[in-house]
Amino acid sequence: MTITSAYSTEAVPMLNIGSELNPIAAAAIDARAAALLHQHQCEIWHRTDRLFTGLLIFEWLAGIVVALLLSPKTWNGPVSSVHPHVWQAIFLGLSIIIAPVCFGLLRPGAAITRHLIAIAQMLSSALLIHLGNGRAELHFHVFGSLAFLAFYRDWKVLISATIVVAADHFLRGIFFPQSVFGLVAAGNWRWLEHAGWVVFEDLFLLTSCRQGVREMRGIAQRQALLEHSHQTVEEKVIQRTQQLKEVQQELVKTARSAGMAEIATSVLHNVGNVLNSVNISVTMAITKVQESPVPNLALVVNAFDQHKSDLGHYLTTDQQGQQIPGYLATVSEVMREEQTALLGEMASLAKHVDHIKQIVSMQQQHAKHSDQLETVTLDELLDDAIQVAVIMQSSRIEIVRDFAPLPRITTNKHAVLQIFINLLNNAKHALLKSERDDKRLIIRTTRAAADGRDEVRIQITDNGVGIDPANLVRIFTHGFTTKKEGHGFGLHSSANAAKQLRGSLTASSDGPGAGATFTLNLPLNQEVAPHV
Questions:
Q1: 460 and 484 together in one domain
Q2: Which residue range forms the structural domain that includes residue 433?
């Protein structure tokens, strides 16, 4: 890859990354590298202009000192006066530096400033040589000035300086050779020798400038590539973070849906159990109605209708008629018993229907997810969870409520209820899989203190199948389950919800067959952590 700067005429080969990046990215890196190179060059130009501004002023003052030391006065017989070199050092030196100093202060970094400084620097060298009457050692000031000008890393500045040196030596070599070479008569080509030495130095300085620019370009290219890589990494991090957030939100949504499905399944199961009782009551009522002697009363009514005229004689003398009063007494007793039984069945039906209404109402109350904080009583919330769970009236499972007196807490009611239901259902499955007869579930609430804050502790302990120690470390992992029909959402979502509630959920078990205890710690009045 090659970058051609708008501020330099040569094209220097750069890092070959074209094969690794697409053309658009490579072009963007090239453009950024060119901008960084120009920025670095501007900083160097600006800094060097400031340096030469001070140096020119110093050289002007040094020239005055040199003139005062070497030739302070001139004599005309016994009369002395200030030597012309002093006045030249003051006024000619000032005229040389005034323009570049102004540009260096007002327009540092501009191309015209660099060239004016280069010209002034060479003229200052020429003035110093003149003030020293062409001493050979003062010519080294020219070479030192060229070396200083190489700080710009701009080869065109050296060209301007070289032209000024060559022109000065040429003109003064012809008209004032003593002021430049220290000789009254010098060869016509003496200036060319000095110019040749200057060009010889320029060759090294030009090479140094080009090498410096090449290194600057390499640095700019690497910095641009690093910036591009950094930006690419940041974009990928942002993209991956967004994807992780979306996946996390999807997992949370799935877990919540699974939790709601768990609640709905429990509700449907409970409603189904109640409907079984309703069906039994209805069947019994139908059977009693079908077996009722009431239809036989139509025969009695028909007999009465046939003996309207001699009804008294029929009931007293007729053998069939004499049986009717006893029959009616028996039917009356049977109907009274049937009425009592049917009223009992109707009361049972009403109770079952009311129970169904309560379950559905509770489901509707807790079905919608909300982050709103509510002040609730844990005992009531646990009773709701027990009633929603399928273990509510199971004769196979003994439920022990060990509730300590606790204050009302402010929390996310729905999240806590979902945790309770998940834990109760988990305990239910562990108990139903156990072969022991004394299936027991203990729900215990206590008040505790941890990390300097008041907490409530809810422990759900079962004497079911227990948990293998190897599974304890991953029981709350997403997707982990030991049930064939399980989905691994319940305990995972419960642990996340507990953490979001500024609490914790832990599990303990002495091993298979030894039961398990799940402990939920919740702060009394702690704000719920925001959803991610």
A1: yes
A2: 374-523
Sequence-separated (6 or more) residues with CB below 8 Å from residue 437: none
Condensed to tens digits (0 to 9), the pLDDT of residues 122-167 reads: 888 888 887 777 777 777 888 888 888 888 888 889 888 889 888 8
- The answer to whether residues 168 and 79 belong to one domain is yes
* DSSP count for the chain of H helices, then E strands: 16, 11
The length of the chain is 532
pLDDT digit string (tens) for 184-204?
Answer: 565 666 777 777 788 888 888
Distances 148 to 57, 58, 90, 352 between C-alpha atoms, Å:
15, 14, 24, 104
pLDDT of residue 16: 45
- For 246-270, give one letter per residue: b (16+ CB within 10 A) or e: eeeeebbeebbebbbebbeebbeeb
Task: Write down the pLDDT at residue 201.
Answer: 83
**Which of 367, 400, 425 delimits the end of a domain?**
367
Structurally, how many domains does the chain consist of?
Answer: 3
Q: Report the CATH number at residue 481.
A: 3.30.565.10
pLDDT of residue 106: 92
Q: pLDDT over 90 for what percent of the chain?
A: 5
270 and 184 in a common domain = no
* CA distances in angstroms from 32 to 7, 61, 266, listed in the order given: 15, 44, 63
| pLDDT for 103 | 92
The answer on 237 and 197 residing in a single domain is: yes
Judgement on whether residues 171 and 208 belong to the same structural domain of the protein: yes
For residue 389, what pLDDT is reported?
64
Q: Which amino acid, one-letter code, is at 219?
A: I
Whether 531 is covered by a domain: the verdict is: no
- Say if residue 298 is in the same domain as residue 181: no
Q: Which pLDDT value is given to residue 11?
A: 39
Alpha helices, H only, 291-323: 297-306, 311-317, 319-322
Query: What confidence score (pLDDT) does residue 378 get?
Result: 85
| Percentages (nearest 5) of helix, strand, coil residues in the chain | 65, 10, 25
Q: Is 528 within 8 Å of 500 (Cβ atoms)?
A: yes
In the block, residue with structure tokens 């430049």: 180
One-letter amino acid of 355: H
Q: What does the buried/exposed string (b/e) look like for 271-309 if buried means 16 or more CB atoms within 10 Å of the residue's CB?
A: bebbeeebeebeeebeeeeeeeeeeeeeeeeebeeeeee
Max CA separation in the chain (angstroms): 195
**Does the predicted TM-score (pTM) go above 0.85?**
no
pLDDT of residue 352: 64
Using the 3D structure, point to which of 335, 350, 367 is the last residue of a domain: 367
Check whether residue 180 and residue 318 sit in a common domain.
no
Intervals of the chain under pLDDT 50: 1-19, 391-393, 528-532
